[in-house]
Design a protein that fits this description.
By secondary structure, this protein is mostly helical. The chain has one domain. It is 73% helix and 0% strand. The radius of gyration is 20 Å and the shape is globular. The two termini are 25 Å apart.
Length: 261
């Protein structure tokens, strides 16, 4: 069983090589860190901002997550998930996939896992970009202080894990839309609409029920912004719950679909 899954996963992974989705993951991961670095270079005339040594990495981390958590990462997930989920629609190869000697459930889990691993790749590239800013930024420009303090590995890992969990509902719901609608623009369009609704959800009393809002709410919580969920509401638990529910719906819709091509 495990061996068949690994073969199926490997097959699905090869499909993403040199695809638009794979480039989107890599470029998207490095985009914000390098954009912020360039922005600092272009503003050399500004006075240097000296953060307390113990807060340097967290300051850079928060600065990079500002546009990423609220807007760019959800949009990237919508595009990447749709691209990967609809590779067979684009190439008209679903029939070839289903005639292979493997269970439909294995195909579903393998493709789903590929998307989750690509999301992990994005986080890896993004954090590498952040570290690059901290280490090499001060070598290029003088108003970024050199990080002499210890890298807060545990804190960074916890925040990364929280952000990863909080974006899982987007992956699950977008995957559901992508395998139900053959038209790429339909699934992406619905995803973009749900993301637009997120901006209204942030200021709504019960906005935390919107599954696309958790990355933004977690970021606001980290910077003590007023746009936070009510006390006692665990957005991470809500995110996991949504992910499980959407994944179960995904699974049953996938294995019971009548059209196999």
């Amino acid at each position: 069983m495990i061996l068949k899954f690994l073969h199926s996963f490997h097959s699905e992974w090869l499909k993403t090589k040199r695809s638009v989705a794979s480039w989107l993951v890599m470029i998207g991961g490095f985009f914000i860190p390098f954009t912020i670095l360039i922005a600092h270079i272009l503003k050399e005339h500004n006075k240097p901002v000296h953060a307390p040594p113990k807060d340097f990495w967290l300051m850079i981390f928060s600065e990079c997550w500002n546009p990423m958590a609220i807007f760019l990462m959800p949009m990237g997930i919508i595009l990447t998930t749709s691209l990967v989920a609809q590779l067979e629609f684009k190439n008209n190869t679903w029939k070839q996939v289903f005639v292979m000697p493997q269970k439909i459930s294995t195909i579903f889990v393998a493709k789903y896992t590929v998307i989750l691993v690509m999301l992990f790749q994005f986080f890896f590239f993004f954090n590498v970009g952040i570290i690059f800013i901290g280490i090499f930024g001060s070598m290029i420009i003088f108003h970024i202080p050199y990080p002499h303090e210890t890298f807060p590995l545990i804190s960074i890992l916890k925040q990364n894990a929280a952000y990863y969990l909080d974006c899982l509902p987007i992956v699950a719901l977008q995957y559901l839309l992508s395998i139900r609608y053959r038209n790429f623009l339909v699934s992406v369009g619905i995803g973009f609409l749900l993301e637009v609704i997120t901006f209204f959800a942030y200021s709504f009393k019960y906005g935390y029920i919107h599954p696309y809002s958790y990355c933004g709410f977690y970021y606001f919580e980290q910077i003590n912004n007023r746009l936070k969920v009510p006390t006692g509401i665990n957005i991470h638990l809500l995110a996991i719950s949504y992910f499980i529910v959407f994944s179960i719906i995904n699974y049953f819709l996938f294995i019971r679909q009548k059209e196999r091509g």
